[in-house]
Amino acid sequence: MRFETFSSVEAVDRSLWNQLAASAAPMMEWEYFYCLEKSAAVSPARGYQPCHLLLYEDNRPVGLAPLFERDRAWVEFGDGGLIELLTEISGMPFHHGLVGTIPFTPVPGYQFLTRPEVDSLKVHRALLDRMDELCQEKGLSTCRIYFVSPSAQALHALLRQQGYVCLRSDYCIWLNQGYRDFDDFLRTFKSGRRTKIRRELKTIQQQEIQIDMIPGSEAPPAYFAEMNELYLRTWNKHMGNDIRAFLNESFFRLLGEMLPHRLLFSLARQNSDTIAMAIFYEKAGCLYGRYWGCVEEVPFLHFATCYYQPIRYAIQHRMRMMDPGFGGQHKLFRGFQTVPAYHYIKFYGAAERRLAYSILNQIQTRSAK
């Protein structure tokens, strides 16, 4: 076995990466990482230095771990700010580490990419061993792996065996229980909740708002520019103008060029004018929702655009799962269910490890009280 690290996704052969990612989520494919890196949304200036790790066996590529060296831990989603807290309390550089993640995409889909015919456990163990070596060679304090795909069972078990602390958070998804149509789905609710959802949809219809799912391959370039503008509206509403948005116009333009075959727009129009939009990634019977934005606040428009219309689409196309995106307890009242999302952290250095475990135990004790 031998290893090679790459300082950009461009340095890795596109067809090779996607062969390894054949059964992975669409955001694990080469094109998605390319859009993030090429747009400079992900860059050393933003705290992400790519160091993608490729494993060869007998000179044949058999495994790939998309990785980044991080010199900060701000907004990594999975640990809830734990690494920032440890760094602040201790003064030790816990934030300086190796990170396995899909940047700015808090979706349970990260995994090591492997050929289907190889021993995945052997490949995963070799990649993790090399990651340990890299962290020690570079003097890094942590290795952090976020939102590990639920399908990567071998990786979950191996991470625990190799000294990673497991963190769990709640996440919401919608599962298709073999519904014949949207009304069949609504019949699973109690009468009062079913009536409320129908009332929400009727409110949208009464305002002559039409919502359609538009394939990315049919979307004009203007849609991607509009999505960027709407994304920024949502960002500024929740984060303010003083914090730079994660994504940019170049990222959305590149999505249209590189990934249209994976994209769907949930598009809300009133009098032929676009008033709201969200993007969905589609692959292997699964939908992943991202980047909601609207021109003006309309009651229930968010639910109709991001939940109801995509669920209707998923039922029509016999899809098995819809992931609506991170956060939002209101999802639980609209047919989504809570599932666990798992994140893993390994600490390097005896002193760092003792201190981290001590602080973690204190936090857990306080939470229990």
Give short descriptive properties of this protein:
369 residues; alpha+beta; Aminopeptidase; 11-stranded mixed β-sheet; 4-stranded antiparallel β-sheet; 37% helix; 26% strand; globular
For the secondary structure, the number of strands is 15
CATH topology of the largest domain: Aminopeptidase
Q: Tell me the name of the CATH class of the largest domain.
A: Alpha Beta
Query: Low-confidence segments, ≥5 residues, pLDDT <50?
Result: none
* Helix content, binned percent: 25-40%
The spatial strand order of the largest sheet comes to 2-5-6-8-15-9-14-13-12-11-10
Cα-atom Rg, whole angstroms? 21 Å
Morphology: globular
Mean model confidence by pLDDT: 95
Major sheet characteristics:
11 strands, mixed
Structural class: alpha+beta
Could you tell me the strand content as a percent range? Answer: 25-35%
Considering the protein shown, what is the CATH homologous superfamily of the largest domain? Gcn5-related N-acetyltransferase (GNAT)
Q: Give the termini distance in whole angstroms.
A: 49 Å
Number of continuous helical runs:
11
**Annotated CATH architecture of the largest domain:** 3-Layer(aba) Sandwich
Number of domains in the coordinates?
Answer: 2
User: H/E order of the elements?
Assistant: EHHEEEEHEEHEHEHHEHHEEEHEEH
